[in-house]
Amino acid sequence: MRLLIAEAEHTRYAELLAPATGHIEVRAEADVNALLALADGCDIWLGQPDLLAALLRGGHKPQWLQSTWAGITPLLAADLPKDYQLSRAVGIFGQVMAEYVLAHMLAHERSLFARRAAQAEQRWDNRLPRSLAGLKVLIVGCGDIGQAVAEFLQPFAVELTGIASQARQQAPFSKVLAMGALAAQLASADYVVNLLPDTPATQNIYDAKAFAAMQASAVFINAGRGVAVVDADLVSALQQQQIASAVIDVCRQEPLPAGHMFWGAPNLLLTGHSSAPTQPALMAQLFIDNLQRFNNGERLHGAVDFARGY
């Protein structure tokens, strides 16, 4: 059995996995051309979807591919094979994503950026902050990351509502509703946190109609996928003060090109796809667990249904 590691941090991954993969031949690289030369005969792949998609396109295919990203969009392209086992990274992003969401909620309620600007102008800013307690937080996407964010926010006494593919009971949410209920829930939310994956059903859902439904004091946080947002409609909503502000971590095109409307949009903060980086130690542990499951013929953590796209 051979393991191919296709990662920018491939040396670190090889070190972390060494105790559990001593019986496996490990090949590791970050350069696509080098990976193409190494991929032949490798049954298991671990790494970045963008690099591994290039290998699939080059005619190679594993028995099992473990993505180090939660998002697997590059591997779902129509021209790529889908007759192998694919698992995405799950259960390792909750803490850092929750920290990201909470940080920006607190920054908004405490007016941190406005106070920093006031200091630069030597202007005394003594506006009073608002507590998070009692605020309504709508989390759109209630998988393992959305669940972790909700659990992290619960001690702050916010009111948690979730939107998922299907309605269900899921603590600590007061309710989790189906996607069809999104429009109605937008009207009462103080914070709208998008954590949805990229699927045909989740594209362009935040459009002019959605932003018009939100409160003028609402904050929109997108840490899911850029394709969920109609860029021009978000900028227009900010310009017309239909919503208070937006925190955008993910964009349709990354890096965001020069001249894009987001750069100069009022009350829009770009965070450069930094909300929840993969932590190699946690990813290595997930891979080791899934390796045992793969060898035993068991269902993998984060197993992907190609038809659903996640």
From TrEMBL:
<keyword id="KW-0560">Oxidoreductase</keyword>
<dbReference type="GO" id="GO:0051287">
    <property type="term" value="F:NAD binding"/>
</dbReference>
<dbReference type="Pfam" id="PF02826">
    <property type="entry name" value="2-Hacid_dh_C"/>
</dbReference>
<dbReference type="InterPro" id="IPR036291">
    <property type="entry name" value="NAD(P)-bd_dom_sf"/>
</dbReference>
<feature type="domain" description="D-isomer specific 2-hydroxyacid dehydrogenase NAD-binding">
    <location>
        <begin position="102"/>
        <end position="274"/>
    </location>
</feature>
<keyword id="KW-0520">NAD</keyword>
<dbReference type="InterPro" id="IPR006140">
    <property type="entry name" value="D-isomer_DH_NAD-bd"/>
</dbReference>
<dbReference type="GO" id="GO:0016491">
    <property type="term" value="F:oxidoreductase activity"/>
</dbReference>
<protein>
    <submittedName>
        <fullName>Hydroxyacid dehydrogenase</fullName>
    </submittedName>
</protein>
